[in-house]
User: Fold this.
Amino acid sequence: MPNYFSFFLLLIFLSVHGSNSLAVPSQEVDPTTCAAYFFNATKMSPAKEYEKLFQLGVRSADRARASLDSEVVTRRIGDASDIMMELIERDFRRFNEIEELYGSLCSRLMLSEESTK
Assistant:
């Protein structure tokens, strides 16, 4: 229930402040947000990078499933993807804006996982 309340508050905040408020992710991103980022990135990647990005998305989702129910993870990935798509007004030609916001944060998150193994 609290997750729905948080999402509702986010929607109210966005309606008051406009989509530019989406442009500032926290310095910490969670694995579900990164899974959404990597899966969306596959849509804009050259063929040689597709598999790497897809696998990063899968690993991000698996990392989230270590502490969350699979259904919750799927919903959160979808919600994060929706937010990203709203940010670029569903125009993938503007994907670089998402990449600038989430690319390094999500890469660092996944690198931190690698170093703890």
